Amino acid sequence: MTPVAVRDLRPTQITVGMREVALKRQMLRSQSARKTGTFLGTHMVPVVLGPKKRNYVTDHHHLARALLEEGIGDVLVTVMSDLSDLDKDAFFFVLDNRAWMHPFDENGKRRGYNAIPKTMAGLVDDPYRSMAGELRRQGGFAKDTTPFSEFLWADFLRRRIDRDAVAKNFDKAMKEALNLAKAKDADYLPGWCGPTSD
């Protein structure tokens, strides 16, 4: 466990759901500084040390972005692996092969490693990632340990719900998402909890 400046954290993905970030910010603002400190003590940000000993975040990107936007200076990290001896290309190749990165843009298209922002402030909004987070909270699927499982759900929704419909009426789009989540078409996704015949 090491305190690291939030502004120095490096993402390992291109997008976040900004509605998710807003919820984290709201939670941080609604509690006392003491409670926030306790919360952050139990929600350490997992990182992999990369070239130049930089901290590359492998989870909790939404929290890190919220902390940055709320002006919270430091966060505790837990180092999952020290790959700082690798050159940049080898480092990203290892991250990719260990499922420690998600180089997909807001349209669900895989991009080159250089498309990943250098700071949390550079993360781009993917409204379908926000839908996936809300879908999980509403019981559409169960929390799962599969890396980037909510991005898999986001991609599923992206292929079935029009982006304009999401932008115009998020709540209505969520009703459609809940129905889609229970369908047989979604049974391959991590945490699926639709009806079964047994």
Automatic annotation (TrEMBL):
One Pfam family named in its UniProt record: ParBc_2
Classification via Gene3D superfamilies: Conserved hypothetical protein from pyrococcus furiosus pfu- 392566-001, ParB domain, DNA helicase RuvA subunit, C-terminal domain
Superkingdom field: Bacteria
Protein name: Chromosome partitioning protein ParB
Organism: Mesorhizobium sangaii
Organism placement in taxonomy: Bacteria, Pseudomonadati, Pseudomonadota, Alphaproteobacteria, Hyphomicrobiales
